[in-house]
Design goal:
- This protein has 5 helices and 11 strands.
- With 208 residues, it is of the alpha+beta class.
- It has one domain: Jelly Rolls (Sandwich).
- The strands form 3 sheets. A 5-stranded antiparallel β-sheet has the order 1-2-9-4-7. Strands 3-10-11 form a 3-stranded antiparallel β-sheet, with no helix packed on it. Strands 6-5-8 form a 3-stranded antiparallel β-sheet, with no helix packed on it.
- β10 and β11 form a beta hairpin.
- α1 runs antiparallel to α2.
- Bound molecules: fe (ii) ion.
């Protein structure tokens, strides 16, 4: 018997459940711990993941979801009505890797399909010299399906994420309320440079 189709609305069932607890925890540590406990059930819900992929393939709402995205392979799946968290999906082609970057919020990163590699860095300079950043690699982790890893705001969460395999991988991340910063930092570790990356919506406005 064929499986009955799953509406992507199921995603909103998970999100509705997460909103109140995430509004009650005071510190990032507790919020991260809560999401790490809850996200694996979503990552392992293959019917939902397939439905989300089909949704993207058919471009149903895709353009709107990608409008403010910083990364080309990123889709925003959900924004909590009280802005406590957002859920984003990333599709990495074989060998695809992000640039080294920081974040404006805490985050929990999870693999829904395939192996995701995360390389973390520590900033060794004091951030006082404009455009300069000296980074040191501190950790290299691989997340298999259903496993998660974390990131933190600003210098505590510098990393790059990639797909070391020869198959496409599906990643779903949950991010907390961002700090009041309109950009993320992009690090060039070979040349010890750092540049600000603004979302496309702001980039279009900047020349004006
Ligand atoms: Fe990231």
């Amino acid at each position: 018997m064929p499986l009955s189709p799953v509406s992507p609305k199921d995603l909103h069932d998970y999100c509705a459940e997460w909103s109140d607890p995430l509004g009650q925890f005071a510190d990032n540590e507790s919020k991260i711990a809560y999401v790490r406990q809850r996200l694996p059930a979503l990552l392992e819900n293959q019917l939902l993941i397939t439905a989300l992929l089909n949704d993207i393939k058919q471009n149903y709402g895709g353009a709107e979801r990608r409008r403010h995205m910083l990364f080309d392979n990123e889709w925003r799946l959900h924004m909590d009505a009280k802005r406590r968290f957002s859920v984003r999906m990333y599709l990495y082609r074989p060998g695809e890797v992000t640039f080294v970057h920081d974040h404006s919020s805490w985050g929990v990163l999870g693999s829904a399909s395939g192996e995701m590699e995360i390389v973390k860095y520590r900033r060794k300079d004091d951030g006082q010299k404009n455009g300069y950043a000296l980074l040191e690699e501190t950790e290299r982790t691989t997340c298999t399906p259903g496993r998660t890893d974390t990131t933190l705001p600003l210098d505590e969460g510098i990393h790059r994420v990639g797909n070391p395999t020869d198959q496409m991988i599906v990643v779903i991340n949950v991010y907390g309320t961002p700090l009041r910063r309109l950009y993320i930092n992009r690090f060039d570790i070979e040349n010890n440079r750092v540049t600000k990356i603004f979302p496309p919506r702001l980039k279009r406005k900047m020349p004006a």
